[in-house]
Design brief:
With 585 residues, this protein is of the alpha+beta class. β7, α5 and β8 (177-179) form a beta-alpha-beta unit. The two termini are 59 Å apart.
Length: 585
């Protein structure tokens, strides 16, 4: 919201994200909709102008009269007019990270589809980002001037039907579809040709508006998308206020550079204002700051944001992603306004009543859907080699509750509880495959560079281990000798006192090593049962019959059928325990 000093008019700012596949005509559409071009607007990037592709978030705006449905219940106007800020997000595949940056500030999504080509890979990715970040959508079928006039209407109807089919399983299933020609004749055509159906699109956009939740309270967080200097004035940072508010003379921090600056003046679309709040698109002027240091990033209340070396997030796989989500794999993580590589470790709740790992196929979720288990350091978690997907009767999307540890390749600055998206942006951009892999919320951040020593030991993620050996011989009713449980070089001291189970049913405790070859002594507190003694005496007799020639070899490697008693050792180990202790419940 802003007040311009001359007329004290109050303007409601409504952010519309213009997303779509490369060359679907998004920039032309934004241009034909706009009256005031903001600084970042319309392919300012030289690389973009050469290739005709928007490479950064372009912003522009136009103002209309406030629609009746935005007046309050008494018919009074809280605002005098409605300003649409168009966020033209790039469609170029390798720049999907920019789209994710833009999508966090969007109230309504305008998905632009080339009426001739229909839904393409990036269109689908834009849809996904919209689902994660935005409550409403309008689909614009562009380039209808390319359809032959006699077949135009039927082609539009056919494409509209296909789009509704694509959208039926998303949150946008009933969304309106409108057909336009933003730039008849294509980008090179002269501007004399009028755009088609753009006034109708403006009316549709007005119908789709609502009063977004805007809250001036709390710490300031502003996403900066452009930075430039004005001689004699200072440096202007343009961007959108994601939370809180700002005013002239406020001190703000640029956390990535660890500097604070005082706000000298504020503008909204070339009009000076005294302040601005959440949802507003502003230019903020500060002095003695080199604009080259910050092309994009965040500005905040001093001390309110943290720079993190690692983080814990809730995690949900994106259904369209075909790859597996494996622990230790690296993903592109978009968090706040940054995209950075991170190594991922997945973990979940311990399997129900199990000391066995959850199999990806037959383990029921530990908690029913919807997810309702808050993360806490007090609980124990189960280490997963990969993300676990719900099987059988569970409804799609109701995977067991799980979390992930992200270890960033370089530190990132972001607010807590912000949206996190994991993607595989190095996948071939021409392959018809979704590259968005998972999404979640940032729950805990680690600010200490030495987090592996200082913080991770508090995270109780365990792996279960199972070792199996054989019973070598009986010393007396309470003592047996075992083998093949440990390698020759294993330090047996670590295992003394651990419980083992014999396949015949008895339990015992490892008392220590026996000889030099990794054999060990087990104390069976309750004593061996008569059946076990009988079994063991018959196998040792069998062994004896082999004669002295093969005796030595048999002693080392008796056949499995002549050694029926196995020894089982189960324990768990905490992944981040610096002492690598073995624990038995």
């Amino acid at each position: 919201m802003s007040e311009s000093p001359d007329s004290r008019t109050k303007t409601l700012n409504f952010n519309v994200g213009v997303l779509g596949h490369v060359d679907s005509g998004k920039t032309s559409l934004a241009r034909s909709l706009s009256s005031t071009a903001s600084t970042a607007a319309f392919d300012k990037n030289p690389q973009s102008r050469e290739r005709g592709i928007t490479l950064d978030l372009g912003f522009s705006s136009f103002t209309v009269e406030l629609p009746d449905h935005l007046r309050d219940s008494e018919g009074q106007k809280q605002y005098d007019n409605l300003q649409f800020t168009l966020v033209d997000c790039p469609g170029h595949a390798s720049l999907i990270r920019t789209i994710i940056g833009g999508a966090q500030i969007i109230d309504l999504m305008m998905l632009v589809v080339d009426v001739v080509k229909g839904v393409q890979t990036q269109t689908a990715e834009c849809l996904l980002i919209g689902e994660l970040t935005c409550p409403r959508m309008v689909v614009v079928l562009n380039k209808i001037d390319l359809l032959p006039p006699n077949k135009r209407q039927s082609a539009i109807e056919k494409m509209t039907k296909r789009l509704h089919k694509t959208l039926e399983n998303t949150r946008f299933k009933e969304c309106p579809v409108i057909a336009v020609a933003a730039k008849p004749g294509g980008p090179e055509a002269p501007d004399t040709e009028e755009p088609q159906a753009v006034p109708e699109l403006i009316e549709l956009l007005k119908k789709q508006t609502y009063l977004p939740q805007r809250d001036p309270k709390g710490d300031l967080l502003m996403a900066v998308d452009h930075c430039f200097s004005i001689r004699g004035q200072g440096t202007v940072m343009t961007g959108t206020i994601l939370q809180g508010s700002l005013a002239i003379n406020d001190t703000v921090e640029i956390p990535a550079l660890k500097v604070t600056k005082k706000i000298k003046s504020v503008q909204m679309f070339r009009r000076p204002v005294s302040g601005a709040m959440q949802g507003d698109r502003v230019g903020v002027c500060v002095t003695q700051f080199d604009p080259k240091l910050l092309e994009r990033g965040v500005v905040c209340t001093p001390g309110s944001l943290r720079t993190l070396y690692a983080a814990l997030i809730s995690v949900r796989k994106i259904g369209y992603f075909k790859g597996s989500l494996s622990t230790r794999a690296k993903f592109h993580i978009t968090v706040g306004h940054e995209t950075v590589m991170a190594r991922v470790t997945f973990f979940g709740l311990p399997p129900l009543g199990a000391s066995e790992p959850p199999s990806v196929t037959n383990q029921p979720p530990s908690k029913p859907c919807p997810l309702d288990t808050p993360f806490t350091f007090e609980r124990e978690y189960f280490h997963q080699d990969e993300y676990v997907i719900a099987q059988g009767e569970a409804s799609p999307g109701c995977d067991p509750e799980q979390w992930a540890l992200l270890e960033f390749e370089r530190p990132v600055t972001c607010p807590l509880l912000c949206l996190v998206i994991g993607s595989k942006l190095d996948t071939d951009i021409h392959a018809n495959a979704c590259r968005l892999a998972f999404q979640g919320r940032l729950l805990q951040g680690f600010k200490d560079k030495g987090y592996a020593e200082s913080a991770l030991p508090r995270l109780h993620i365990y792996k279960t281990k199972h070792k199996e050996g054989q019973l070598e011989r009986v010393t007396d009713d309470y003592t047996v000798i075992g083998r093949n449980l440990f390698k020759k070089e294993t330090n047996l001291q670590l295992f003394i006192g651990l419980k083992v189970a014999l396949s015949t049913g008895e339990t015992g405790v490892i008392e220590g090593g026996f000889g030099q070859s990794g054999k060990f002594k087990i104390r069976v507190q309750e004593g061996l049962s008569p059946e076990t003694k009988q079994l063991l005496s018959s196998t040792s007799k069998k062994k004896g019959k082999g004669g002295s020639k093969g005796g030595a070899a048999n002693e080392e490697e008796p056949k499995t059928d002549s050694q029926p008693v196995s020894i089982h050792l189960h324990f768990k180990r905490y992944v981040f325990d610096p002492h690598k202790k073995m624990v038995q419940s």
